[in-house]
Design a protein that fits this description.
Rossmann fold; elongated; hydrolase
Length: 226
């Protein structure tokens, strides 16, 4: 344990695991099934995803709401968006997830020295299924599904809830994630040390918000000087 850090929490999607089929591929397949000509991008979906977390009952409802609005914004009727959401779910959710390289080894190396938690934006059933299928479910003392158990990241609430369950404080905790806008911003707002591992993210010359640490890969984490 180094410099007072006794707790490390993680993001899930594209930090510890990833879909075996990229989202843009699944969305293109959904458009083809519905017979529309790529009216919006996967980045548009990801960019608006957080807007629907608080009001949605589950991930299917979230996609339906979001794709309905995206369809209207791009000149299609809302029902077309709902149909695309249904086809996207069929393609994407059937693809499965896999652990990113080195994840098991990193978690094993940290588990004897730190209390470990997971803070993820997403529906509890979906996120816990990912943990089970990747063999990571037993690695964490607590799992907070932000947007359902609490407000979504980057709101500080899910971080506060996780640290309360882990009997830690922001000053003694670090958070690891791949997203500047939700993971780094959320950790910074909650007072945790932010560690950015930009898997699947565009890396700007000057990240904003600024993480406390930026790693090339998760494998660097156990040797990090906090």
């Amino acid at each position: 344990m180094t410099d007072g850090i006794d707790t490390v929490c993680f993001d899930l999607d594209d930090t510890l695991c990833t879909y075996t089929q990229p989202g843009e591929v699944a969305l293109e397949a959904a458009f083809e099934r519905v017979g529309v000509d790529d009216p919006w991008t996967i980045d548009a979906y990801h960019g608006q995803y957080g807007d629907y977390l608080e009001e949605s009952a589950d991930i299917e409802d979230l996609r339906r709401r979001c794709f309905g609005d995206l369809a209207v914004a791009t000149g299609y009727d809302r029902e077309t968006g709902w149909t695309v959401a249904q086809e996207y779910a069929t393609v994407r959710d059937g693809a499965g997830v896999e652990r990113l390289p080195g994840v098991r080894r990193v978690l094993e190396s940290l588990s004897g020295e730190y209390r470990l938690g997971l803070i993820t934006n997403g529906a509890p059933g979906m996120q816990r299924a990912k943990l089970e299928s990747t063999g990571l479910a037993e690695r964490f003392e607590t799992v907070v599904c932000a947007g359902f158990d609490t407000a979504p990241k980057p709101d500080p609430e899910p971080f506060d809830v996780a640290l309360g369950r882990l009997e830690s404080t922001p000053e003694r905790a670090a958070y690891v994630g791949n997203s500047l806008s939700s993971d780094v911003a959320g950790a910074n707002a909650a007072g945790l040390r932010s560690i950015w591992v930009p898997h699947g993210e565009t890396v700007p010359d000057r990240p904003d918000p600024v993480p406390d640490h930026q790693l090339e890969s998760l494998a660097e984490l156990p040797s990090l000087s906090w």
